[in-house]
Amino acid sequence: MNFNSLNEIASYIVSDGKGILAADESNPTCTKRFDSIGVESTEENRRDYRELLFRAQGMKGNIGGVILFDETIRQKAADGTSLVDIINAQGALPGIKVDKGLSPIGDSEESLTQGLDGLDERLKEYFELGAKFTKWRAVINVGEGMPSSEAISANMEALADYAKIVQNNNMVPMVEPEVLMDGAHSIDDCYDATSRCLESLFSNLTDRGVDITGTILKPNMVTSGSKASNQASIEEVAQRTVDCLKANVPESLPGITFLSGGQSDVDATAHLDAMNKIGGFNWKLSFSYGRALQQPALKAWMGQSENGSLAQEALSHRALMNKLASEGKWDQSLEN
After folding, report:
1. Which residues, 6+ apart, have CB-to-CB distance to 309 below 8 Å?
2. 3-state DSSP call for residue 229?
3. 18, 164, 218, 284: which is the annotated catalytic residue?
4. pLDDT at residue 156 above 90?
5. 261 found inside a domain
6. Which of 67, 168, 184, 235 is most deeply packed, by most CB within 10 A?
């Protein structure tokens, strides 16, 4: 696949209802997932699991991009084929997580994402390894006095600095300002925090001369906190999220690929579908799901090679459901 611009890359990833498989879990996070099914988190097991995902029939036509971890972008399959080549053969583009995780801001509960030091050099290597896009995640807490203006400003400035360096290296930056679901806050609190983050983010991107048409946004949905006594309905989450995006996101952005943020796999699909049924926006509204795409496949696999086809069927089903949701064509009856 040949692309002449960053806009063509970004637009391809979200074309025709396609979305992103987030397979960029760090090794400690992958270990937690494997612990849940009683599988040892060795490099070979991680490779085997991700290889079976990438070879699933349902990748083709439903998945436009795959976010990888540093270990994975360098790995070869059991037959010697690079995992990057397997992803390309499925019609998806390889991407890479490039941030270095979180560091506390002073003695507060808030954090700032690290990784700008040495980023330019790392990006040059990832480009040579075949990456077409990158991801950087900022984490925003909601709670007593949070998010502070200082935490929002610091994180959105870092996201914008990262995005500019990525585009200078001929890759598409995915910017991920995640307002966490953790807590008992209301959907109004989430709307306010998400709106403040998006306003600051796009102001900083513009100030640094980042090409918005060659950028992908990976935001949270506007939801109630996971511990809130009053949980917003599918329809309310969809409407409030669309309203927040319309108020803060430039129409020139090609795609918005939501994170699932701890939602169940079906809830993440239902929310996405409801937004696309509302419509009235220029960007493609799609998905960049990790657990919400992988969890059924992980449970089907259980570390057993003979379960590989079952795991692939589970991933393929979720990938198709989310493609349909990206086109506003999903229905609960399709899950049965």
Report:
1. none
2. coil
3. 218
4. yes
5. yes
6. 67
Say what the pTM is: 0.97
CATH number, position 87: 3.20.20.70
Secondary structure (DSSP) of 49-98: HHHHHHT-GGGTTTEEEEEE-HHHHT-B-TTS-BHHHHHHHTT-EEEEE-
Residues 222-272: tens digit of each pLDDT: 999 999 999 999 999 999 999 999 999 999 999 999 999 989 999 999 999
Say if 291 falls within a structural domain.
yes
Closest CA to 215 of 205, 224, 228, 207: 205
Q: Which pLDDT band, with edges at 50, 70 and 90, does 336 fall under?
A: confident
Q: Is there a domain that residue 1 lies in?
A: no
CB-based contacts of 310, cutoff 8 Å, min separation 6: 300, 301
Helices then strands, counting H and E runs in the chain, come out as 12, 10
- Total domain count for the chain? 1
Residue 25, domain extent: 6-335
Whether the CA torsion 114, 190, 233, 236 is positive or negative: it is: negative
The closest of 189, 210, 192 to 201, measured between CA atoms, is 210
Q: Tokens for 331?
A: 């229905």
User: Is 218 a known active-site residue?
Assistant: yes
Residue 52 lies in a domain: yes
Cis peptide bond upstream of 147, omega within 30: yes
